[in-house]
TrEMBL record:
Pfam families: RepSA
Native source organism of the sequence: Streptomyces glomeratus
The protein, known as: Replication initiator protein RepSA
Length: 494
């Protein structure tokens, strides 16, 4: 257990619970379970049993039951990707994302991605949102428009200079449509590449493929933007060379043209009754950054290692840096629509959800402990919900309207998160067979019978403090091992 100073300042109830847990007869086994989850902050509790039998003889090779576990439960990791929810599971998710992105840049024979992928044209591009009004910032030169030099952690950064004129509706609608803007961009990018190569769309598909991996990030102003690794391959993906005309310069030029093309625009229709008489034309902002990705160790800032680490870092984040709540705020009864699911008839007062009174919210925004700028963005989602009901804005108000995947990739970019998780599961299964003395038994000759039931989740207050301490110790051990590996010349890890 960590130093007792870690637990200083705890309230008496939490401290009492902590001491009770630490003094319980099954504490060592509880601690072992938590270590196996990596110090998960919100583990899933299971009750049940598993039996390994020999298929031929019917002999029981091993039997396990949770009856002898602390509290009669087995704790398994929650697997949540968000660092604000579970830092331990988010660390695992970030590591998987790191390996996925880096394998698509440097190759990985174990994952059937050849090292020759390094020779393919590839860039790291950042797609930002347009301006919705001037905000407090830290320009490279001079001072903010307000006349001040803001400190890096100044809470005013990202907030509007004039909230009354800031286009909050456009901001949340952009977030809400960002995923569709990306799809339009990718479709247009293929056309731009084909145009520069003098080919038709069909001819391009026969000789070249666009592969990518991307991650979303929220700026302090609450606008989402994308960081993407974009690569040109042959027709079969990473294991086939791109055509001779494919170059980094051609890819860069095509990306800029595709991002600025009128096709890469989404028009949101006006609603004159609500005062939105012009509607919106949503497109990427002018600050498009496209840089070639260099091989590791050449002195460049945009290296394979740096890009993979950067993408992995933001794959575990959401909108929490804008001050929004960590959980959804929509009404569960109507799923944020504000309308009754039992009696939904246009114009009828009975169609209004009786739980939220038609607001679509399960929380009172005025009472939430969030910054005023985040509150206004969330309020804009609620205001626009009845005007554009198919956009589910109230349901995603805690994400400021964004409803897409935080990380995604094209099919042939690299390996998959599922494959990485399966490899980890196979490794742990092999470890388990060794611990059970089943190494010499062919897996195909073993019949596995199991019965598991959900029994809850989470920790008591005292358990939460102990689990956080275990997670910190594990993280410190990993960091030390990584530094030793790097010092010895080994490969770096996320």
């Amino acid at each position: 257990m960590s130093d007792t100073a870690t637990f200083a300042g705890l309230d008496p109830d939490t401290l009492g619970d902590l001491l009770q847990v630490a003094g319980a007869p099954g504490f060592d086994r509880w601690q072992d379970q938590v270590k196996r989850t990596g110090g998960c902050a919100d583990p899933i509790h299971l009750r049940g049993w598993i039996v390994h039998k020999d298929k031929t003889t019917g002999e029981t090779l091993h039997h396990y039951s949770t009856d002898n576990e602390p509290g009669g439960r087995l704790r398994v990791a929650c697997g949540n990707r968000r660092a604000s929810r579970c830092p331990a599971c988010a660390w695992t998710y970030a590591g998987d994302t790191f390996h996925l992105i880096r394998a698509g840049l440097a190759g990985n024979p174990d994952k059937d991605i050849p090292a020759t992928v390094r020779e393919h044209p590839r860039v790291f591009a950042t797609f930002t949102a347009p301006s919705f009004g001037p905000v407090h910032n830290r320009p490279d030169r001079g001072v903010c428009r307000c006349g001040a030099r803001h400190a890096p952690e100044d809470s005013a950064l990202g907030t509007p200079l004039d909230p009354a004129s800031y286009d909050y509706a456009a901001a949340v609608l952009f977030n809400n449509h960002a995923g569709e803007l990306w799809v339009r961009f990718v479709n247009r990018l293929r056309r731009e590449i084909a145009k520069r190569a003098g080919l038709t769309q069909r001819e391009l598909a026969e000789v070249c493929r666009v592969s990518y991996g991307k991650v979303a990030e929220f700026q302090k102003r609450g606008a989402v933007h994308f960081h993407a690794v974009i690569r040109l391959d042959g027709p079969d993906g990473s294991d086939s060379p791109p055509p001779s005309w494919a170059s980094t310069d051609l890819l860069t030029d095509a990306i800029r043209a595709a991002a600025e093309h009128p096709y890469t625009t989404i028009t949101v229709p006006p609603n004159e009754e609500a005062g939105y008489v012009n509607g919106w034309r949503l497109r990427w902002g002018r600050q498009l950054d496209v840089r070639p990705v260099k091989a590791f160790g050449d002195g460049s800032e945009i290296t394979e290692q740096a890009v993979a680490s950067y993408v992995a870092k933001y794959a575990t984040k959401a909108a929490e840096n804008t001050g929004t709540p960590d959980t959804a705020v929509y009404c569960r009864s109507c799923r944020g629509t504000g309308r009754s699911r039992l009696y939904d008839r246009a114009g009828s007062p009975l169609s209004r959800c009786v739980t939220c009174h038609g607001t679509g919210l399960g929380e009172d925004l005025a009472r939430l402990d969030v910054p005023d700028h985040a509150r206004r963005l969330m309020a804009a989602c609620v205001e626009l919900q009845p005007l554009y009901p198919d956009r589910h804005l109230a349901r995603w108000a805690h994400m400021l309207g964004f409803r897409g995947h935080f990380s995604s990739k094209s099919r042939r970019y690299s390996t998959t998160l599922g494959a990485l998780r399966q490899a980890r599961a196979d490794y742990r299964a092999a470890q388990e067979r060794g611990a059970l003395g089943l190494d010499d038994v062919e897996p195909d000759t073993v019949l596995v019978l199991a019965d598991w039931q959900y029994a809850g989740h989470g920790h008591t207050p005292g358990e939460s403090v102990l689990a956080a301490s275990i997670a910190r110790d594990l993280q410190l051990n990993r960091q030390t091992a990584r530094e030793e590996l790097a010092a010895s010349g080994g490969a770096d890890h996320a």
